[in-house]
Amino acid sequence: MTRTLPAYRSVLVVCAHPDDESFGLGAVLSTLARNGSRITVLCFTHGEASTLGSVDGDLATIRASELATAGGVLGVSRVELLDYPDGALTAAPIDDLAGHVHRLAHEVDADLLLVFDRGGITGHPDHQRATDAALASGIEAGLTVLAWALPAGVTEHLNREFGTGFVGRTPEDLDLTMHVDRDVQRQAIRHHQSQSNDNPVLWRRLALLGDTEHLRYLNRPSTGGSQDPAEQLPPRRAIRSQGVPASE
């Protein structure tokens, strides 16, 4: 049986693209913020390679502005947007990415790292890499890493209706259930106008989920490590003491 989310003081969200914080995590973040958590978002790319929607101007700049505005709607206290190439995050050394997570988690005194589920929810390699980086940092720093996940029943509907490749989890794999209010998330989504709000897959997913979101632990230091030991990352080099490794 899934349980409700414990209280966290400072939450660091690690994601790949502007809009991940709203399209995916929006209802979770607004609920956490409303309940008193301080929310920080670390986003690795500007999302400049997106082919959704059509806007005039520099997409990287536009999406940075959209992220800042949507984050404010969700109750995010701080956003840090990095310049890794959109669509090529897997080429970045995992130590470099994890170093950014480590540094910012220390700066905001995070007691939780919040990420997309393993498999990136949609199977997007950038999503998976962002999660890998957060998990590597969380394991090394002894921080809880919690992943937003989709129930298998929801993903089966989406994949059948739209031919998508969403990764779902069985009830036994889901650790926590949150009751959420979608209104704030919908407001945040609408600030990502460059990504086309006329997205039937997004709106269908939200309708299927209703007022509920689900999460699963990837790392639980208080219980001796990962919720799923088979998904632990292999040992990596220690994060350099300055937190942000030099580019390689």
Observed structural traits:
8 helices; alpha/beta; Rossmann fold
Write the layout of secondary structure elements.
Blueprint: E1 10-15, H1 20-24, H2 26-34, E2 38-45, H3 59-74, E3 76-84, H4 94-107, E4 112-116, H5 125-141, E5 145-149, H6 152-162, E6 176-179, H7 182-190, H8 200-209, E7 212-219
Parallel strand pairs: 1-2, 1-4, 2-3, 4-5
Antiparallel strand pairs: 5-7, 6-7
What does it look like?
- The protein is α/β, with parallel strands linked by helices and 248 residues long.
- The chain has one domain: Rossmann fold (3-Layer(aba) Sandwich), CATH 3.40.50.
- Helix content is 37%, strand content 18%.
- It has eight helices and seven strands, in the order E-H-H-E-H-E-H-E-H-E-H-E-H-H-E.
- Strands 3-2-1-4-5-7-6 form a seven-stranded mixed sheet, sandwiched between helices.
- Helix 3 links the parallel strand 2 and strand 3 (76-84).
- The chain is globular.
- Mean pLDDT is 87; it is low at 224-248.
